[in-house]
Design brief:
This protein is an alpha/beta fold. The chain has one domain (3-96, 158-222): Rossmann fold (3-Layer(aba) Sandwich), CATH 3.40.50. It is built from seven helices and ten strands. Bound molecules: adenosine-5'-triphosphate and magnesium ion (MG).
């Protein structure tokens, strides 16, 4: 399996005034195309922090993030958005949808932000929403979508630009068990059928059953 992402000995220290939190402590792992990696661990163990560093949203205090063979953790703030755009699709723990925009517009706005499909963002957004099974709901506002449907909109946004790496933070939190299973199935299909590398942060036992590999975090370290 082709290795697409690697983190080497990464540490994240949050420092606010006199309070110093080591959220992630010397973690190393790899992520391959075609696989679903599950990151588990108790609340506060550093899962979201680790995922954000893998997604180049947060810079490690120490250590390296390597994407497609290139060390990206020490690139400038100007270059990182380019790396994110090229390789990373991130689905956040909270949905982060714009309430005054429809499902389609929520995807279109991300396409524009990424500088993609300037000519026909609507058509591309519809294709992405179709892909995640929301073809019938494209003109609905977030308030009229169920939790699972909102989650699918975040996946459609994460898929904009056809990234090799999909990172999803708690994708089944707030979903009923059937919808959660569907959403997880969708992520697994992306890995297996489209050769994406997928990393999921989740407490969900259903995710355990479906993951190819599991790492447990405790106090910022891999157990
Ligand atoms: N911006 C921040 N500033 C200071 N401390 C932070 C910040 N973000 C997270 N932390 C701290 O870092 C630690 C790890 O947080 P993180 O959000 O990564 O945990 P988590 O495993 O995702 O938890 P949860 O399961 O509750 O989402 C926690 O102690 C948290 O309080
Ligand atoms: Mg979290």
């Amino acid at each position: 399996m082709e290795r697409i992402l690697e983190v080497k000995d990464i540490t994240k220290v949050y420092q606010e005034g006199n309070i110093r939190v080591v959220a992630v402590d010397s973690v190393s792992l790899t992520l391959n195309r075609g696989e679903v990696l599950l990151i588990m661990g108790p609340s506060g163990s550093g899962k979201s922090t680790l995922l954000s560093m893998m997604g180049c949203i947060l810079r490690p205090t120490q250590g390296e993030v390597i994407i497609n063979g290139q060390v990206v953790s020490d690139l400038s703030e100007d270059t990182l958005p380019y790396i994110r755009r090229q390789y990373i699709g991130f689905s956040f723990q909270s949905f982060n949808l714009f309430p005054s925009l429809t499902a389609s517009e929520n995807v279109e706005v991300v396409l524009r932000l990424k500088g993609l499909n300037k000519k026909r963002p609507r058509q591309k957004a519809l294709n992405l929403l179709e892909k995640v099974g929301l073809g019938e709901r494209v003109d609905f506002y977030p308030r009229d979508l169920s939790g699972g449907e909102k989650q699918r909109v975040t996946f459609a946004r994460a898929l904009a630009g056809d990234p090799s790496i999909i990172l999803a933070d708690e994708p089944t939190a707030n979903l009923d068990s059937k919808t959660g299973r569907e959403v997880l199935g969708l992520l697994k299909d992306l890995a297996v059928e489209s050769a994406k590398a997928v990393a999921i942060v989740s407490h969900d036992p259903k995710a355990e059953a479906l993951a190819h590999r599991i790492v447990f975090l405790e106090d910022g370290r891999i157990k």
